[in-house]
């Protein structure tokens, strides 16, 4: 056991910190989940890419710097520490890209990855359908085989930033004759294709962060199928492990939140409910727990082990920790907690962050589903 | 001992519930997020006609002369409808404060018109620093220089504070709070401020019960029809237990609010403690219900196109307003824990 | 709404308080769940009966004083306030007697109730079986029709104080041909009858508070059947409502616990974790909530309404409140919390009370079952 | 950065697990509730033979010369077996304290025999006021008059304190703590006391992980075979979610304990904070697991004939010993929250 970062890792951290310190916008950008903010965020993504920070762990040929997993964690810690803008490219970079690396082909990787990393081509996940949420295998949107490709019909919903993105990816039913989890295929679809209709949907915090996407005989060429036809479910499970687990929620995010919470407590401690001191301590312990849990996971991954159902346990923890941290912050704010504070200053950010945190126990598989997974796969309890 | 409402009280509640279901449906509430005043056009006068605005005003001023215990169920209904009007401030706080503490001339100038809904009263206090409906109010009670003052809206400079609940039009007072006329000062003003906090907190607690019940109803309805894995999600034990917890929280908060109302009506010496118990618990219970409701809905609850958020955000707001749980726990601790006296007589 | 007690009720309270103040043993009795303590408690029960306090709400002819429900609540408040001994007769008085009042016959009432109230004849509940706990309808012990009565065979378990009592009551399967909930009959069985074997079982806190009872062709006369043959389930449901709801856990118990907790906090506040102040406040709010909830329930009962599934909600609340209160007390005790303190002084009592409280969410139907009941009966959610 | 154990460390853990499964089965543990010493006859010397007692003692004194990070997994195994021996006090605290702080003569007199198990050492501190195994120990380290002293058991008058865990033989020292020889005084003694608390708290946290894991395993096994309503209760969602919560609590506490061990081994400047984080969280996690375990068992878990209580009571005891969660949260708050410094470097 060696808890020190190597000299190389420390140098990497110093380089991140220096660059971010010099380049992170001094005033926060407008929310990336609004049309205006999305555009502003893409400018930032360009800047990040040009300096080689957009996708640190990727191969150099796609714009990365081939950083190790630990370096990636360090980058994330520094990124959140610097309060740098949220990544509006994340559903491409963190969720689709791993699928392309593992299941895509060279043509797809060469065509898609660099524009994705640069923010020139943006991606949304088209996962849920109106009748397939927790029961993802119940999805009904279908793809009909035609010459040179497929015609897609159906509807996807809750596509994050779908109203602003260029393309989506998701599962469609290519074989209705086999049981639910089979006969699904993983597609990428351009939103400017004929027959696509996108409708923005407002989220809890007032941003147009969701979209519904309607597919009316939309042609998708074979080159935009990922992996084998009818094998989309297996690929999707790999993606949801990413979404639940390590990639979407790196410890840096919560270390930064805990730090801000402690600063808030310091500024309010004299007037605060005495119980909040303990709540803040517990929040910090949570952040530490998640950080070291992740270091352990990454050590195992570096040594060649897979994540598996641990990602469900992981997701339960970070999503509920995030809610608790924001609840504690709002309690510290007292009566001002209901105010949006007219923008993105620190106090309004807690309210917005709280609303965002409430989505955590829902998306990427509700925590009820995750608890089933933990019980059945990790504890081997019998199916219900 | 009879800890239950009268048939009259229940009847008034039912008629108000029907009236609000018609006059303040979700669409009307939703419109208040974007209209000028955050209020439902024409509704204020109808509430006056029903007697609700003057429910606690004296009969000689045109009110119904009823007590807090008569008001708690109507306020709960206002919560159930998420009524976007300054009902707490006007009817539950300002009118009784003016009647109890103001000189006759002020009382007679304002109360009869407040009772009908011709004018709107609101109030600013340390425990209610953001003034609800100040822009559409006619008179604002404000705490200034050790006195409680009645200042006409036109004398005040206001600054909008955006609430998470778009139907709550909140303002801070930038200047002018020293104007108008004095209601009372010195010890009387301190007493009035305490009374106002008690009244406002009780009324907010009552609304929180109604808000929580509405959110729970909405969720129970949803989980009965939403199917996943081939059956209603309400048949899964995880959802059942979430909602059983929500109901338990709400039903166990309810008697505390009713007790506080009766205690206020009886001017019980411990009424402030009873109000604090009620507000602290109603706030945490309603917030717990809201959290469970959102979780049981999943993504649809997270969309503003669905109605849940209209109620949920009101819950968040009212849980923090008129003293958040920490504020009320501190009042309880100071009175009950810090002393040496008997906990129960 | 009238929150004042009447003059009669206030006089009743004063009479209770005066008598209890003069008669409650100054030093606590040994635990009533030990053989020695049980005997000592019965002496107290005799004293209580002789003064007319054993069964205040019962008819005078069985030793009661025909108190109203509110007077009964007042008696309970005063009883716990005075820290009077636990009632070792409670499973007779509070659980069997209501069944006899409603479903028994005059001969049974005349024969059984007064000796029960006097503590001359003691009763344990023989409810669960090794394979029928939460699934009570799955019980297997059977009763075979014979001349003049029945022969019982089988096993009951977790019979509280069963090792010290004279008789048990419980359900036995009289008709194996009908579905689970039907074909059960409600019996009373003397533990000195031929064929009965009782084995004491030690409980978490070290007391021999449980018993297993084995029935090997035990004869029970028809006169010891309560209600109609094969209709025991309906009768039992009435009993479990009592057990879950009002009768077993009157608010006085928790008012007294909250009072002791506040006293403990006062004595420790300077050294206590600041968060515990709020925990103590919440405990007191809980006690108040339960008290007023109960006053509301009693008002409805006085006016002729039944309790129904509310008793499940009620049971969830008091049982979990009781655990929280004891957890808070143990936290206030700091490192001494693990000590039994050699007896029943105030601090050891918290540890013993904690262990007792942990049983609350389990017995009388686990809280998991109660939550199902609340969801299905009160919220009308569909069965799983 | 490599946050994982070596194969050697895992191998030692596995061999100890096997050894304890044989030498300290539930029956042996149960016998300790009623025997003279609360210890398993003959086991102490076997632990010495295995090297466990001297794991942290220097090689020149006959120990293995290993660090906290080598000790954390064996201690976890001791927890898993609910080992009723003063292993924390003797091997994790007293030996290293004597080696680090005592004069050579004391060290040489006691450590070589402590390593083999010929003698038993234990310790009394403000944060460990009830001395585990004092009656069967040979030497007790005590805090007296500003000094840390080494006092032979025979010089002390002891009074038994009954723990909820019958296998924990606790004593308070009635008199004699001023006898024996001084280990150190002044600033050194304060440093030694802090070090002892850190070592004891870390070791207790490690045992709590093992206790929690054992209790969870027992429960998972039970719910798979216990049937109600015609199927294993482990197939009900309520039980699944309880146990998923238990596993999550435990798995998220685990890395904090391992980090604290590595931090102690490296004499990290923040090691006391890391230990406090570990102990606070391991205590709450193990208690949560115990609570869930009892609830999932139902009545059988409440009977002392079943083994669950043997583990559960050890959890209750160790959660309170060596600083309860409140004590450790206070240490964290004082160091991290009260200052103005950076939370993360």
Describe this structure in words.
The complex is a heterotetramer, with 2 copies of chain A (384 residues) and 2 copies of chain B (345 residues). With 384 residues, chain A is an alpha+beta fold. Chain A has 11 helices and 8 strands. In chain A, the strands form 2 sheets. Chain A has a 4-stranded mixed beta sheet with strand order 1-4-5-8. Chain A has a 4-stranded antiparallel beta sheet with strand order 2-3-7-6, with no helix packed on it. In chain A, a hairpin with a 2-residue loop joins strand 2 (142-146) and strand 3. The model of chain A has no long low-confidence stretch (mean pLDDT 93). Chain B is 57% helix and 11% strand. Chain B contains 11 helices and 9 strands. Chain B has a 4-stranded mixed beta sheet. In chain B, strand 3 and strand 4 form a beta hairpin. In chain B, helix 5 (87-101) packs antiparallel against helix 6 (104-116), helix 8 (237-265) packs antiparallel against helix 9 and helix 9 packs antiparallel against helix 10 (308-320). The model of chain B has no long low-confidence stretch (mean pLDDT 96). Chains in contact: A-B, A-C, A-D, B-C, B-D, C-D.
CATH fold node name of the domain at 188-338 in chain B:
Butyryl-CoA Dehydrogenase, subunit A, domain 3
Broad structural category of chain A: alpha+beta
| Portion in beta strands of chain A | 5-15%
Strands side by side in the biggest sheet of chain B: 1-3-4-7
The unreliable regions of chain A are: none
Count of domain modules of chain A: 3
**N- to C-terminal separation of chain B?**
16 Å
How much of the sequence lies in strands of chain B comes to 5-15%
């Amino acid at each position: 056991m060696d808890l020190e970062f190597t000299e190389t890792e420390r140098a990497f951290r110093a380089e991140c910190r220096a660059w971010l310190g010099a380049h992170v916008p001094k005033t926060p950008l407008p929310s990336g989940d609004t049309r205006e903010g999305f555009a502003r965020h893409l400018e930032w993504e360009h800047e990040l890419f040009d300096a080689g920070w957009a996708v640190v762990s990727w191969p150099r040929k796609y714009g990365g710097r081939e950083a190790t997993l630990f370096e990636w964690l360090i980058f994330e810690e520094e990124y959140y520490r610097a309060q740098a803008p949220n990544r509006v490219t994340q559903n491409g970079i963190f969720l689709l890209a791993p699928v392309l690396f593992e299941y895509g082909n060279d043509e797809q990787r060469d065509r898609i990855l660099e524009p994705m990393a640069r923010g020139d081509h943006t991606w949304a996940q088209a996962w849920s359908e109106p009748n397939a949420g927790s029961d993802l295998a119940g999805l009904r949107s279908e793809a009909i085989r035609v010459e040179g490709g497929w015609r897609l019909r159906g509807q996807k919903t809750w596509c994050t930033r779908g109203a602003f993105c260029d393309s989506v990816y998701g599962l469609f039913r290519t074989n209705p004759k086999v049981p639910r989890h089979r006969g699904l295929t993983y597609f990428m679809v351009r939103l400017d294709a004929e027959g696509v209709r996108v409708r923005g949907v407002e989220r809890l915090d007032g941003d147009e962060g969701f979209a519904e996407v309607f597919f009316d005989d939309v042609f998708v060429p074979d080159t935009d199928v990922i992996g084998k036809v009818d094998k989309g479910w297996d690929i999707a499970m790999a993606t949801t492990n990413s979404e639940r687990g390590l990639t979407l929620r790196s410890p840096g995010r919560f270390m930064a939140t805990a730090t801000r919470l402690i600063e808030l407590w310091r500024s309010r401690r004299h007037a605060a409910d005495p119980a909040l001191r303990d709540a803040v301590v517990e929040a910090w312990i949570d952040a530490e727990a998640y950080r070291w849990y992740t270091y352990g996971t990454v050590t195992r991954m570096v040594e060649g082990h897979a994540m598996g159902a641990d990602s469900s346990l992981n997701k339960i923890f970070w999503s509920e920790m995030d809610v608790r941290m924001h609840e504690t912050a709002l309690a510290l704010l007292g009566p001002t907690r209901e105010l949006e504070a007219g923008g993105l200053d620190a106090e309004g950010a807690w309210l917005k962050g709280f609303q965002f945190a409430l989505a955590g126990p829902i998306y990427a598989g509700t925590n009820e589903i995750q608890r089933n997974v933990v019980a059945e796969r990790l504890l081997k309890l019998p199916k219900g | 001992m009879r800890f239950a409402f009268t048939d009259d009280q229940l009847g008034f509640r039912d008629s108000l519930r029907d009236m609000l279901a018609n006059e303040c449906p979700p669409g009307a509430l939703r419109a208040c997020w974007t209209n000028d005043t955050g209020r439902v056009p024409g509704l204020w006068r109808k509430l006056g006609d029903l007697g609700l605005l003057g429910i606690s005003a004296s009969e000689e001023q045109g009110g119904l002369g009823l007590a807090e215990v008569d008001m708690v169920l109507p306020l709960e209904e206002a919560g159930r409808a998420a009524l976007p009007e300054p009902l707490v401030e006007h009817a539950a706080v300002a009118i009784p404060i003016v009647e109890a503490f103001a000189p006759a001339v002020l009382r007679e100038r304002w109360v009869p018109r407040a009772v009908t809904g011709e004018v709107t009263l609101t109030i600013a206090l340390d425990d209610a620093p953001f003034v609800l409906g100040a822009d559409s109010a006619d008179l604002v009670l404000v705490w200034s220089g050790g006195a409680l003052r009645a200042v006409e809206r036109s004398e005040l400079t206001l600054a909008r504070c955006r609430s998470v609940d778009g139907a709550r039009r909140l303002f801070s007072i930038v200047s002018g709070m020293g104007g108008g006329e004095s209601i009372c000062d010195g010890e009387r003003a301190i007493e009035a401020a305490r009374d106002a906090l008690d009244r406002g907190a009780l009324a907010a607690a009552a609304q929180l019960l109604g808000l929580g019940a509405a959110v729970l109803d909405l969720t129970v309805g949803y989980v009965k029809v939403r199917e996943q894995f081939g059956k209603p999600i309400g048949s899964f034990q995880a959802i059942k237990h979430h909602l059983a917890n929500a109901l338990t929280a709400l039903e166990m908060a309810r008697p505390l609010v009713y007790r506080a109302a009766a205690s206020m009506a009886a001017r019980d010496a411990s009424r402030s403690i009873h109000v604090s118990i009620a507000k602290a618990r109603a706030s945490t219970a309603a917030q717990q219900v809201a959290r469970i409701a959102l979780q049981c809905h999943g993504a649809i609850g997270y969309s503003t196109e669905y109605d849940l958020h209209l109620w949920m955000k009101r819950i968040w707001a009212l849980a923090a307003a008129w003293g958040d749980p920490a504020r009320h726990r501190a009042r309880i601790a100071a009175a009950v824990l810090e002393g040496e006296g008997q906990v129960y007589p």
